[in-house]
Protein: GntR family transcriptional regulator
Organism: Photobacterium ganghwense
Amino acid sequence: MGSLKSSMKPATKTKTAGQSQDDVVYCHIFDAILEQRLPPATKLSEEALAEIFGVSRTIIRRALLRLSLEQVVVIRPNRGAMVASPTVDEARQIIKAREVMELAITELAAENATKAQIDECRKLVAKENKAFEQGDYGSGLRLSGEFHIKLAEMAENAPLLAFQRSLVSQTSLLIAQYETSNHSNCSQDEHSALLNAIESGDKEKALALMQEHLDHIRSKLNLDGRTASSDLHVVFSNVLKNR
C-alpha cells in the first residue's frame, strides 16, 4: 500500500473555466487514476491534496466522495481515503461486468451511431495512437478509456453510459495492478476496426470484434497484485506549477 510520501468523462474530464473547484479537483484525480499516475491502494490525504490544489479540505472531501461513488476510491471510517485496490475475485467480477456492458453498448452503437460521433471517435483513436507511439502510456490508456466512453454515448442509453464510466475507471485500476504485458498495446487497430463495423451497421462483426478486444484485455492480466508507487506532490506537479 502506498503512503503520503511514497504513493500517489468518462473519458478525460476536461477542465473548463466554468467549473467549480469541486469539479476541477475531481477531474484531476480521476484523470490521474485513468492514466495510472495514482496506483491502487494509494492513500489520498485530504491535507496533502488541499495543499496541492489550494482549496479547503471540505472541497477535497466532496471530490473524494464523488470518486467513491464511482468505486475508484474507497473511504474508510477514521482512516481516510485511498485509491481502490480490487482483489482477484473483484477483478474477475469487474471484467465480467465490463464484458456484458461493452457488448450491449456495441449492439446499440451499431444501431444509433451518427457520422459526427464516428468522426469524433476516429480523431480520438488518432490521438491514442500518437500517445502510444510517443511512449506516453498513461495518456494512451486514458484516451483508450475515453474511446469506450464515446461508444457508450453512441448507444443513446443513459444508464449504460453511467455504468460504463465507472467500469472504465475500475478497469484502469485492474490494468495498473495486474497487467504483465510491459505496457504493450494492441487496441489501436482494434478500435479502428470496431469503428468501421459500427459505421457500416454490421452488428455481428462489431460484437465479434468487441469480444476479441475484451479477450485481449483479459489475457494481459496475471492477477498477482503488484503495484507501483508515487508521491501526491509529484503526481500533481502540474497543478502546483500553475498555482
